[in-house]
Amino acid sequence: xSVSEISRSCRESTIADGWYSPSVIPVANVIPDVLAAVLRxxxxxxxxxxxxxxxxxxxxxxxxxxxELRDAVLHVRAKDPAWRRELERSAGLIRRRLQxxxxxxxxxxxxxxxx
Length: 115
Hints:
GMP Synthetase, Chain A, domain 3; 5 helices; 3-stranded mixed beta sheet
């Protein structure tokens, strides 16, 4: 059974039981947008950048890197060549997600190096 079939089956059973309301928006769909809006309005501090980095890349990548934002360029120092390759491969996606959290003018590019 596919995910969409499971979803449709759950929705149909909750409608039959009277529990489904199309006006209810799942919290998981709202939180990321609200968090991004709040973050964009906050002053650009090293802590804000570190928080956005952690949200964007996850805890494993965060532990394997050190970051610093200077002149709209995020300098990322990877702990080894394997992490550097992964970061370079994902740089476009990471940049877009960070821009969504920090604002489009806060980050122009990523510069990835080794520690």
